[in-house]
């Protein structure tokens, strides 16, 4: 359980940084994950992935 709590925000941040978003959505997601690591990561994987730009 501790491993998941530690790794999930890191994986979310890597995914956010590697992808393109419209406007300032990338910055907003990084801040959400940094300030609310567990909740922000879960929110990103459910809602944020839909906001990414298609390559």
TrEMBL record:
Primary location: membrane
Membrane topology label: Multi-pass membrane protein
Domain (Cardiolipin synthase N-terminal) ranges: 7-48
Subcellular location: Cell membrane
Listed transmembrane segments: 28-47
A Pfam family it matches: PLDc_N
GO cellular component terms, A-Z: plasma membrane
InterPro entries the record matches: CLS_N
The keyword RNA-binding appears for this protein: no
UniProt entry keywords in alphabetical sequence: Cell membrane, Membrane, Transmembrane, Transmembrane helix
Name this polypeptide is given: PLD nuclease N-terminal domain-containing protein
């Amino acid at each position: 359980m501790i491993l998941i709590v530690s790794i999930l925000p890191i994986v979310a941040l890597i995914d956010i940084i590697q992808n393109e978003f419209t406007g300032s959505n990338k910055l907003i997601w990084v801040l959400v994950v940094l300030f609310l690591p567990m909740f922000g990561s879960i929110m990103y994987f459910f809602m944020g992935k839909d906001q990414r730009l298609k390559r």
